[in-house]
Structures are given as C-alpha cells and as structure tokens.
User: Fold these one by one.
Assistant:
Number 1:
Amino acid sequence: MLRYIARRLLWAVALLFIVMAVIFVIFNVLPTADPAQLRAGRGASVEQIEAIRQSYGLDDPIYVRFARYVEGVVTEFDLGTSIFQNNAPVRDIIFDRLPATLMLTLGAVILWLAIAIPVGVISAIRRRSLLDRTTMIATLTLISAPVFWLGLVALYLFAQDVGLISIFPGIGAYSEATTFMGKVSAMILPWIVLASATAAIYARYIRSQMIEVMSEDYIRTARAKGVPEGLVVRRHGLRSALTPVVTLLGIDIGVLLAGNAILTETVFNIPGIGGELASAIGQSDYELIQGIVLFGAFFIVILSLIVDILYAYLDPRVRYT
Amino acid sequence: MSAAQRQHLLSVSGLTVTFQTDAGELRAVDGLSFDLRPGEILGIVGESGSGKSVANLSILGLTRGPDTTISGRADFDGRDLITLDEEELRELRGNRISMIFQDPLSSLHPFYTVGKQLIEAIQVHRDVRKEEAAERAAQLLEMVGIPDARRRLDEYPHEFSGGMRQRAMIAMALANEPDVLIADEPTTALDVTTQAQILGLIKELRDRLGMAVIMITHDLGVIAEVADRVLVMYAGRAVESAPLDALFYDPQHPYTWGLLGSITRMDRPRAAKLAQIKGQPPSPLALPTGCKFRPRCPHAFDRCAIEPPLEPRAGDPAHADRCWLSPDEKRAKRVVEGGEIGLEAA
C-alpha cells in the first residue's frame, strides 16, 4: 500500500512538472503579447522596454527562464505578480480568492450528492415507474439548462432584493456578509444553481450504474442468502454502484476548484477563483492567468491522486503495486 | 416403505412462469411438476433455455417482478412457496432452501471478504454475535475442504481459485443447514478435475448432512455422477422423469435418446461424427402445438399433434415420459448402429 502511494506521488510530481512546462510554453514561447511591452505601458520607448526586459530577465535563454520559473514555484510557490493589481503576488491573490471558491464547491458537492444518490437509486429500483420517468425528465431539463440562465431565474424567484419570493440573499451577499452564517446563507442560491445540473448528471449516472449492478450475479446470491431487499440494495448494490462515482467526483471537484465555477461566481458576484480568472483574461493579465491555471492543474492532480488511492481502498481487486 | 410412499420434502405441481417481454409473452416454464424426497439428489437436465434455472429461481421467488407471472404450487413444509409473501420467502432462502450458482467468481461480491459474506449469511438468519458467526464461518470453510480456513476468511473472492470459490459458495449455502440445496450448474465454469472434486464434495455433504439436492445441469455426465433420479426438461416442461439407471438404460423419450446419443463416452469406440439433435429448440415466444419436440423428432406421427401428458408408460410407476409411442416401438426405434442409444441411425 505504501509503495503504491509513493509511486502515485512520484507520478503526480512528474505530472505537475509536465503541466508547468506546457503552461510555460503556452505563455512564454508561443506568440502572445510581449510581457515587457505590457509592463512598460503605452507609448514607452524602445530603451524603456529593453530595460524592463533586462530587469525581469526576459532576455535570458528560454531554458534559463524556465528553470527560474520552476525554482520560484517549487521553493516559495512564487507564481509571479499581477501587473494590473500593483504587482501583487499572484499567490496572494489566489489565496485571497480561494475560500469563496472552496466554500461554493464543497457545499455544492454535498448538495448534489445528497440529491443525486437517493434519486438515482430509487429511480433505478423503481425503473419505468411514474417516479422514475418524472425524475428522468426533470434531470434532462436541468442538464440542458445553462448555469447563467438558471442563476438568473433563481435570483428572479428567490433573491431578497429582486425576487418574487424574497427568501434568500441575492447578488453580492457573500462579500457583504461578515459572519460565517451570513456567508452560508449567501451561498444557498449559488449552491443550488451550481449543484442542480451536476446533481442531474450524477442522478442519471448513479441510476444507470445501479441498474447494471442490480442485475449482477452477486446480487442474486445475496437475495438467495435471504438478505432483506433493503440491505441488498444498500450493502451489495449501492456499494458497487457508487465506487465509480468516486472517480467522477474527484475530477469534478478539481475542475470546480480550478475556476470552473466561473459562471456561478460571476452571476452571484462571488469573489472566487473563477471570477478572478475571468477578469484576468479580460485584462490580458498573463501572469495571473498562468498562476491560476497552474494552481488549477495542481488541484486536479492532487484530487486524482486522492481518487486513485481511495479507489484502491474501495475496490480490493485493484493491486497496490 | 417404498420410495414412492416416502413423504415429499418439496412438491412442485403445475408450475408455470411467464415473462412479459417487448417481443410478447414468454412462457419459460409450463406446467412443470416434480417431487423431491428428503436426502435425494434430483438431477434436472436440459439445454439452455429449457426453463430449468427459471423454474428453480421461481420456487424461491427470485424471478418475481412486475413483468413476471408465476402460477402453480410448490409445497414445502406445509406451505405453498408460490403464495408466500416476500418476507416469508426471505426467511426460507439461505436458511431452509439454499442455492449455489454457475460462476462462483461473479456470484460472490468482489468488494467483501469471503469471511464477511459467510458471516452475513449466518447473521441474516441467526441472532448470533459476529465473533460467533466468524467461528462458524471458519468451521464451514473447513467442512468444504478449504485448508487454512481462518486465514482465508480475510481474503477476497479474487484471491481464491475457481474450485475454492465454489467451495466457499457451498459453505455459504450450507451455513444454516438447509433441507434443500439447489445447485444451478455448479461445475460448468470449472475445469474437469475441479468439477469432479466439487461433485464429490456435494455428494459427501449430502451423505453427512442429509439435505436433498436439486442438481441443475446440461451435462449428462454430471447427472450420471451424482443423481438418484433425473428430470429431463425441454421447452419449459418435463419430458421424462426416471430413476438414474432407467434413464440411461431404458430411456423413453426421443429427446432423451438424442441427449444420450450426443455425449462422448470413453468406454465405447469413438464414432466418426458426434451425433447431434437436428434443428433448434423452439422459441419460447412461439412454441409448436402438440408435442414440443415434434418438429425435431424423426419418429413423429399424426398423434403427436396432441401433447402427451407426463405419465408412466414403461411399466415402472417411477418412470414417466411424454411420448405417444408404445414402449416396444420406443425400444425398437431408439437403437442405432452399434447397439448404442441414439435418436436416429447416422
């Protein structure tokens, strides 16, 4: 088991190195805007641009610059500075934005699992029943609904300021909230909006997994043993049906933490990673974009590492070698 | 006391199972009747789709569902299993009547240790502590011939060999000392030497524990090895029912001749070509009228347009079949070249 984890860790490190190389190539080798010129601003003279280029070491050979970049990231997690935010370190900007994204993501994950597991299981067991058909149509609708539209509808219906039934805090409530509970209630609508489409996808996935698993031979064995049907479903069926969901969940959490909650964050004006990435792209703030992308890749690699280890624990047929 | 007078442990009569499918009504079992006596091994032989598995799963209520209709009777211990509700059946399953299956790898849960699955089988029916159940589980594994049982309780099914897995399945089925063990093709997925060991084990355990066994198989070799009595199934019904020797030496139904003619035998010179029954078994969605074997039978005549009932025709009350031919005609027609029993001369 330890050897397996060690091997996985090494692989994760190698993967991160490759990710850094790819990001570096994209932002430094492929033709983008000249960073020295960007820093110098409009109307700068050639000498000024050249001076900036030298002071930032941008005239060094490419491998020297890459080595310096890797060294900065590894030793002090230096992701560069944002020229549009008074040269604030990108690392600090990300850490500043991370709590909101974390809170949004984790709350949404809990919500969508709490909806998707019971819906998926019940519609699998009661296949072709009215309940199954209704929920499957509902999930299809939710999957098809774009998040920004769903967000606006949610605000229109429930937001305290503009909503028809004003019960939940609306746009910008997260930034204004000072207490933790205030932030939690500000997150209710965003959680629902972010979770709904994913809950629908998961419900369908769990349903199809569950239908497949419940026709397995070992389910028949459990029934032939005299195991009560409720236990057959939970102990024998659900355990198998949910194991592949772990893989899906790892990727989805990673992607959301990497800034993919961008639409929800934008609609509700939540100061998270996604919103930051959106404005960085709008301003061509390359170092900030580069930092957020690397940070996101870091999350995805870490989560897939966790998934691999967890999977080996959940499915004993996976070898720890 | 003669065999016929002994009381029946399980008595199935007129069992009919139909499934509602997209292609129409599928009658998998049609009016099946048989009796099981305490301590005997009843072999049920037939091709895939002959209804032998469905019949036995249905007795235990394991085919119940919105698209299934089960009728007939299955009397066990003074109760009709067909009319019992799910909870009453559940109490019997794995307790008084157990079942083992064809592929022991897919029949065991891959995520739980063998010990955990054995303990579950015990605790579902008995109010015992986990330690006690674990102790019993180890004894069960020892009983079915798994060495180092205590250590192997903590292993997963994929760490067992095929034969060991089927032994573990048998241990699990016998956990609560059932009266009946239904073995659904228990050796089909195993190699030949392991097959013989598993069959030997089942026989030995029957002798030791005194349970009755229903051995479902498509392999007459397995039947010859273990069965006391045999039921031959075709198209969802029994076409012949006989004591073991009578089936092999005086088979009455042409389908049985075909089955006997198509097995390879080490004690006879090898035939140039292995005999086979021409044609395909009928689709359960569109069964022929009259005798169901008629379209494939070289000896069919006009009377076969009416399906013969299963009744004793060969003089022995324990030997019944569904064929209109007289016993003398049968004896004359079934012999093929070389004196062997077969469906028709090659």
Number 2:
Amino acid sequence: MNILRSTITAISTSVEVKDMIESAGANLPNLFNFCSFGVLWRERSILYLFQEESCPPTFTQEVVKNMVKVFSILGEEPIEIEQIALQVEKRKLRPNPFMMDPQATLKSHLTLPLSVEEEIIGCISINSDQPNAFDAQKLQFFSVIGYQMAASLRHLQRLSTVKKEAIYDTLTGLVNRRYCEERLSAETQKAFTGGSNLSVIMVDIDHFKKVNDTFGHAGGDQVLREIASLLKNSVRRQDDTVARYGGEEFVFVLPGAPLEAASTIAERIRQSIENNPFNIGQTQIHLTISLGISNFPTHPAKSKEELVKIADLALYEAKRGGRNRVCIFNSTLGRNG
Amino acid sequence: MVRGVKESKEGKFSSDLIFDLYANLMTEIWGIVSELIGEAILGVLYTSALRKTGEKYTFLKSLKVSEEGISLDEVRRDCRNMAPGEIHRGFQSLINHLSHLFSALTENVINKELLPKVLPRVREAERMISQR
C-alpha cells in the first residue's frame, strides 16, 4: 500500500506530462511484473511507452496495436495507428538480469480508460509477455493509478491552456504584448550587460481604420490574422519574437541582429505586405505597412522602454514621411528616414 | 394492455418482475466491478455500453448512470407496458456489451469475477420469459 501511495504522490506532483509518465513508469515495477507500460493521450495523439530495455520491436508493435484498438472501442470512433506519434523510453524494469525472448508476444494486459468528467481523454495499459500476469488485486491498484493519472493529466491540460492564454493573442496567434515585454526585458538585460546587438522593429498597418469602416470588424480581423501570419513567416530564428503589440500594431524583437540586418528584414517585410493581395469576401484589397527600427548599441538606450520608444519615434517618422516605408531613428537629426 | 404483458398473482406485471431481476443484477454488477476499477471508470464504460445498445433497445437510453450506480427508476416507470421479452433482450444485450468491454480492457480479470454471478441470473430471466 505504501508503494501505491508513493506512486500516486509521484504522479500527482509532476508538473509536466512527460515527468508524470516517467514517475509512474519508474514506480510501477515495484507493484507489477510487466514488460511495457503505455499512456495514450488523445489530445496530442501521442502514445508514450515505458518499456523493458530488451523488449523486441514485435512486442512493441503488438502493444501499440492493442492500445489503439481498445481506445477505439472506448472512444467509439476508430483511430489509426498512423495518426499516433510514438515515444518510447527503454529501461531496466526488473532488478535481476533479465532478457526478453526476441520472439516474445503480448500475452496479457490491463488497459483502462483515462476519463475525467465523463470524457475519455486517453487510456493506460500495462502489458506482459506472460499469460495471466495480472489478477483482480493488480487491477484494483492499476485503476487507482489510472484515476490519478487522468486527474493529473486534466490538471496539466488546463494549466497548459492557461499558460497559452497568458502568452498568446487569441485573434492572431502571435505572442501578446505582456509576453513580448518579458522577452524584451530579458533580451535588453543580455544586450546591455554583454554588449550584444538587439534590434526592435515597430510595425503599424497603414489606414487600417478604413478597412474596419469598409468591411466591418470581421473583415478587419481577417486582415489582422493574415498580416500576422505573413509577419510570423518573415523571421526564422528561434530567438526572434513577433508580437501583437495592440490594435493594428506589431513588434519584432531581434536579439543579436545588427542594425543593417534589422533594416533588411524590415524592408523585406514591407515588400511582402505590399505585394500580397488580401481577399475580403469577393473584394481584393492591397495594404501597406510602416516600420520603425531601433537598435542597441547604435542607439544608446538605457532601458527596454527607451528602445521601444525610439522604434516608435522612427515609426512615427515613417508615417509622417508618407507611409509604406522603413525608418531608422537618427539621434543626430532627431528623426531620419 | 400490450400483448404479452401479464399480471402475476401478486398483482405485479410480468415486466415488473423482469425489471426487478435486472435492477438487482445491475446493482450487483456495479458492486463487483466498481470494487475492481472504481466508480468513475465504470460509469464511463456503462455510459458507452448504454449508448451503443440503446441504438437498438431505445428504452435503455432512460437508464441513469452516475458515480453512485445505475438507476432503473425512470425506465421502469416509462416502460412497464413493454413486453418482458423485449426488456430481457435489451438488458441481455447491455450485459453482453459490458462483458465485451471488460474483456477488451482486462481480458478475463473482470469477467472471471463477474460471470459466475451474472449468468445464473440471466438464465433465471430466460426461464421467467419462457414460463409466461
């Protein structure tokens, strides 16, 4: 009973799904004699398998096939093996030297649905190459583990949704202003202390009010989504951040990017929007954007706010200069295109 | 009165007797299996089995499943004029489906505990129907 209790504690205190499965998999050999432990998680279409290191591939295939079959029976809608991403962890599950027969087949299993609030979110399975490896008491233990895993999985799912909502803008799918400012804080700190480059590009859609006035907010939202997608595809480095800063305003944070590189990126973005026709219903429209750039150390900003303000001033200059252009802040002249 | 439904000596409809038998059986199944896999998982399996078998035997859709067990109150009230044979076949189909689910999940672990207690009761229901 103590072993079961510690297994449950390990599952319920995990903060990541993978950790939870690892914890369960690491504790289960104290309760059961098994060759393979699987968790099929519907939402992510992932099947995690925690297996004896000598488990032959044929055995793995049988386990996968069986879990998918059982889940299809439970969910009442068939799922295909090809739809499932398999993640296999091989471990030594038995203390004594043990080698599975390379021809071993699946002889017995316990599979239970992972259900929360009457919804089946996946299933767990424990599998053996021995016939009748599990009895009623093992099933009782396994069902307690299944119940706890389902509850923890749902908790982690909700946590992940809350995290996503805190980071992403729901309309465009870009990161939101709050997250962008967090990134900017971290990146300015790095740049200021290490002396590395950091560029910020502020972007504003020209005459966006006209789009809203002509096509309504639904049309405006469609344009925002399309532009966001184009902006997102215009940077490829993992460290680069593109955020919706508010309304029709976007911001790029480009760590390590010198002013020239930021300028090239900004010009490429400007052209890609200018050359992209937007279809709203039956109407095709063309839009342009204005962009303002700031860069550390070219512009001696002392804070992230100052770096953003400088980019914003450059953006203002781009608007004042006739829109559809890229401006770099020039401290000697005040503002310069 | 619907054809095939008779009143017994005790004044009960024969359908009532079948419902009595299956109400007890359902409670017994719930008790045995919930001991093994817990009420929450069992509730999900019952719901799934009722959805499936309710396609053919629509009266089964009125069975209420919760973590406390399965309730036949509503179906008993609504279907007391139903032919006992139909009620029997509906419940038999439900039990078969549950047994199939238990087998798919745990091979013979649940059914080994369950079937020795369930099968004699189903046969008893069959006897009652044939004596009608």
